[in-house]
Design goal:
- By secondary structure, the protein is α/β, with parallel strands linked by helices.
- Helix content is about 50%, strand content about 15%.
- It contains 14 helices and 11 strands.
- The strands form 2 sheets. Strands 1, 2, 3, 4, 7, 8, 9, 10 and 11 form a 9-stranded parallel beta sheet that branches.
- α7 links the parallel β8 and β9.
- The radius of gyration is 19 Å and the shape is globular.
Length: about 325
């Protein structure tokens, strides 16, 4: 937490316009958001993402309201379905009807943030008689994370923005197409939606040995990610059916080499952002040119030095939009 606060304060001093926290196994995004909100002045603070299964809509709305008072106009509530591993494995909760759960959570949270008393009975959620007091000091945008068609369309229909990650650039047009379908269904202009994309970055000196080591690290960290049903289907949806099948088989067989080996160098180079600072900036710009509006950079090496190298490479002074 102390390092997150220090990094956010540094980022604000460098001109970064936003910081995004993930709700993972080793950090609580909303607690971190509150901490940095109290020690910063103008940087935007978002969650990417909070799972809709681990907190009730009333808790989400209450937390968002609290943050709107700590950082008026600066907080973005990013919600997502998460995965079987986290929801069923870590939390012991049923991962059922994720599309419906996302829709109903968004409906309830948005109505509560608007000052309405809850009176909702849905397929996965219900809430009666709850009212926020006080109400948000400033509007709280709700962004929805999505992977495949129907969830992307829901994000376009109901979200103030959409959060995406871990896909090769050629899949972006298909992603934006479905976001647009949802937006049009709700009589909205797709161009008004912010598209937030999280990039897994590792700055190297360009040497082949260091790049090979970076690819190996990406395999170790993200092959299990792609073994989860939601991301496995997403990889297939992006056009890599054979790779997804091999990862799925290797995971079921407890064959680590088969699971990680399915992610070949060429595919890793399409999904991860690996290379010199200039090469990494060019890769992210290519996504922006294709429709991503907000780039979130994250070091997948997970060390303080690797993270600082990434953040230094993408300061506004070095990465003009």
């Amino acid at each position: 937490p102390a390092a997150s606060l220090a990094t956010t304060q540094w980022a604000e001093s460098q001109g970064y316009d936003g910081v995004w926290f993930a709700d993972t196994g080793d950090s609580d995004a909303l607690t971190l958001a509150a901490a940095v909100a109290s020690h910063t002045e103008h940087i935007r603070i978002g969650t990417a993402i909070i799972p809709v299964y681990t907190r009730t809509p009333a808790v989400l709305a209450c937390s968002a309201t609290t943050l709107s008072h700590l950082a008026p106009g600066r907080f973005v509530l990013g919600l997502g379905a998460s995965s079987h591993t986290m929801i069923e494995g870590w939390h012991g909760l049923p991962f059922e009807k994720p599309l419906t759960r996302m829709r109903e959570t968004t409906q309830i949270v948005r109505s509560l943030l608007a000052g309405e008393k809850s009176a909702f009975q849905g397929d996965t959620l219900r809430s009666q008689g709850y009212t926020l007091s006080p109400t948000p000091k400033a509007p709280v945008p709700i962004y929805l994370a999505a992977l495949r068609g129907k969830m992307l369309e829901l994000a376009g229909e109901m979200g103030d923005g959409v959060i995406v990650n871990l896909f090769p650039l050629p899949a972006l047009p298909q992603i934006l197409k479905h976001v647009g379908i949802g937006a049009v269904r709700a009589d909205r202009d797709p161009a008004t939606l912010e598209v937030v994309c999280r990039f897994q970055v590792l700055i190297t000196d360009g040497g082949s040995a260091e790049q090979a080591a970076a690819r190996t690290l990406f395999r170790q960290r993200f092959a299990p990610y792609y073994a989860t049903p939601v991301y496995n289907r997403f990889l297939a949806w992006c056009g890599y059916e054979d790779v997804a099948a091999t990862i799925r088989e290797g995971w079921a067989e407890k064959d680590r080499a088969k699971t990680t080996g399915a992610l070949e160098d060429t595919l890793i180079d399409e999904i991860a952002v690996i290379g010199s600072a200039d090469e990494c900036r060019d890769r992210v710009r290519a996504y922006q040119d294709a429709g991503v509006t907000t780039a979130v950079v994250s070091s997948f090496a997970g060390t303080a030095d690797a993270s600082r190298a990434v953040y230094e490479a993408f300061t506004p002074a070095r990465f003009a939009v």
